[in-house]
Design goal:
This protein is of the alpha/beta class. The longest helix is centred in the middle third of the chain and has 20 residues. The structure holds FE2/S2 (inorganic) cluster (FES). FE2/S2 (inorganic) cluster (FES) binds next to loops.
């Protein structure tokens, strides 16, 4: 038992299932015996729920069958009782229309698994994009001792001796194929070599961004997020996490003891210093709300003003997560921005963030840049406001061509994704490199699910002219592995009558990142006239989970959580079930 022990075996939540002398507990014990466990395996021991998002169709978690055994080994060794509980996997490459439609479903599943079963603590196994925020959102709402085991990035992709990055190089070489600069044979070799090991995307996409955020929030063992999935140190980390969660139960160390406003500020700073994904705005806002912390998208913009981008990682920079790990990993990066962090924040190992960074060291100054030579001195993300985005929109200045940071151009509007697919490469489309591509109906309700469509394709005829970046605007999200002058998360979305819905072909749109402005150059009277003529589209779902989603989903600036999952709707701190 831990030296910091605060609770006794009879205080364990699972004691209500196993410890009572009544008919129900007889049933629980006899059914546990049915699974081959003797009483000495579990009575008086913390029951550790291992929420495993493994699936045959999730390549990012393909090592989780093995890793879960390593977690269990740690739990057994520390005197706990491990119970694996599979949960929906949210496989980014395969699930349509988008995993974002199901993030809240996994969050609900996590919370309800923990609530309804005899869990004293939990290990959360995730990493592929939405799995990280979803698992953590559910665990925060249930507030049992929790530790996150990140899947770890896959190894660098390989093609003709060059490194390939997930997503980033797919977009890049797809554009080159469409421009006629590579052939089908090259494209096949890229397909074979870009994803060559277990693990999540190894660019600084949403997966690496969110697992890094989870680490700096204090929800993983120190250093966990940067370890490549196939590295034996990843297996060691899994075992150590299993050991540690048992101690955390005895210490009664819960997510709400760890997650404070300052720890979310630390997470935002970290995302910025990493040049992380714009998706982090939506997820961190939602995670903070579950902890009753009012994190706003404006806070990202405030902190971006003096946070340098130091990680030289694709899509903003040059390297990949494997290089980042060898350069010292997240701890090394954090050691370079210590002055911007609140180092007193508690973490799952009962030490502060500052204590965990005491031996951090950078081994490669080009991968993790010094403050004197940042990738970008500040402004990794920018939040824009204006008459087409009164609730805000986001852009990633680090991953776009600088000449577009202040730009005015005529809108070319696509009413939805099908319209975009059908017309973008049409030789008769009236568009040039100064045009502004606008996509409607791509937000939380419109798409629905706010898919990662925001890196709108550049028309083939302009690609052939050498154009590689244009101003693009939508209410969609963008893959964290993408790049380009893409204004995203326009709020409120067009589908619910946000003013983006009223933009028409030929309207001049003005972006000024430095001034944080995004406007369509039409009069208020004209805007009102178009608004009055606007007809609300029909809802996209009429049955099943989709109807629940459409009824309760909130806009991007609110984190796209369901309104009924906000903490004020909990009857008590845990919503504990009756056991009859
Ligand atoms: Fe799983 Fe990118 S596809 S993290």
């Amino acid at each position: 038992m831990s030296k910091l022990n605060k609770i006794n075996p009879e205080d364990l939540r699972s004691h209500r299932w196993y410890g009572a002398k009544d008919m129900r507990s007889f049933g629980h014990r006899s059914r546990t015996a049915q699974m081959g466990y003797h009483k000495s395996d579990y009575v008086g021991k913390p029951v550790i729920a291992i929420i495993n998002t493994w699936s045959d169709i999730n390549p990012c978690h393909s090592h989780f069958k093995q890793r879960v055994e390593e977690v269990k080994r740690g739990v057994w060794q520390a005197g706990g009782f491990p119970v694996e509980m599979p949960a929906i996997s949210l496989s980014e490459p395969f699930q349509k229309p988008t995993t974002m439609l199901y993030r809240n479903l996994l969050a609900m599943e996590t919370e309800e698994l923990l609530r309804s079963y005899p869990a004293d603590g939990c290990v959360l196994m995730g990493g592929c994009d939405k799995t990280t925020p979803a698992l953590i959102m559910g665990a925060i709402s249930m507030n049992l001792p929790s530790i996150f085991v990140p899947a770890g990035p896959m190894l660098r992709g390989d093609y003709k001796g060059q490194f390939l990055g997930s997503g980033s190089d797919t977009w890049k070489y797809w554009a080159e194929l469409r421009a006629g600069n590579i052939d089908e044979q090259d494209w096949q070799e890229i397909e074979d070599g870009i994803a060559r090991s277990p693990g999540h995307c190894m660019t600084m996409g949403t997966a690496s961004t969110m697992t890094s955020a989870a680490e700096v929030l204090g929800l993983t063992l120190p250093g966990a997020a940067s370890i490549p999935a196939p590295d034996s140190r990843h297996a060691q980390m899994a075992t150590l996490s299993g050991k540690r969660i048992v101690e955390m139960v005895w210490e009664d160390l819960k997510p709400l003891d760890i997650l404070k406003a300052a720890s979310f500020d630390n997470a935002v700073r970290t995302v910025l210093a990493l040049g992380g994904s714009t998706n982090s705005l939506v997820h961190l806002v939602a995670m903070a709300k579950r902890a009753s912390i009012a994190l706003t998208i404006d806070r990202f913009d405030e902190l971006a003003q003096d946070t340098p981008v130091l990680a030289n990682l694709r899509p903003s920079g040059k390297y990949l997560m494997e290089d980042f790990y060898y350069a010292g990993g997240l701890k090394a990066l954090l050691s370079r921005v210590k002055h911007l962090l609140d180092l007193n924040q508690l973490t799952v190992n009962a030490k502060t963030l500052g204590e965990n960074l005491s031996h951090a060291q950078v081994f490669n100054d080009d991968v993790i840049r010094p403050l004197s030579n940042p990738l970008l001195a500040s402004g990794g993300l920018a939040v824009l406001k204006g008459n087409i985005a009164p609730g805000g929109a986001v852009i990633k200045p680090a991953a776009m061509e600088p000449h577009l940071r202040k730009h005015t151009g005529a809108a070319v509007v696509f009413k939805d994704y099908n319209d975009l697919s059908n017309r973008i490469d049409s030789p008769t489309l009236e568009i040039d490199k100064n045009s502004v591509i606008v996509l409607l109906s791509a937000g939380p309700q419109g798409a629905p699910g706010m898919p990662e469509w925001g890196q709108l394709p550049i028309p083939q005829k302009l690609l052939k002219e050498g154009v590689r970046d244009m101003l693009r605007i939508s209410d969609a999200r963008m893959s964290g592995t993408s790049y380009g002058a893409c204004v995203l998360h326009v709020t409120p979305e067009s589908h619910v009558g946000g003013p983006l819905a009223f933009v028409q072909d030929g309207d001049l749109i003005a972006l000024d990142i430095e001034a944080r402005r995004l406007n369509v150059m039409i009069s208020e009277e004209e805007m009102q006239k178009r608004k009055n003529a606007w007809v609300a589209p029909a809802p996209k779902f009429t049955r099943g989970y989709g109807t629940l989603y459409l009824k309760h989903i909130q806009q991007a600036d609110k984190g796209c959580d369901f309104d009924f999952l906000e903490p004020e709707n909990l009857q008590n701190s845990t919503g504990e079930p009756e056991i009859h």
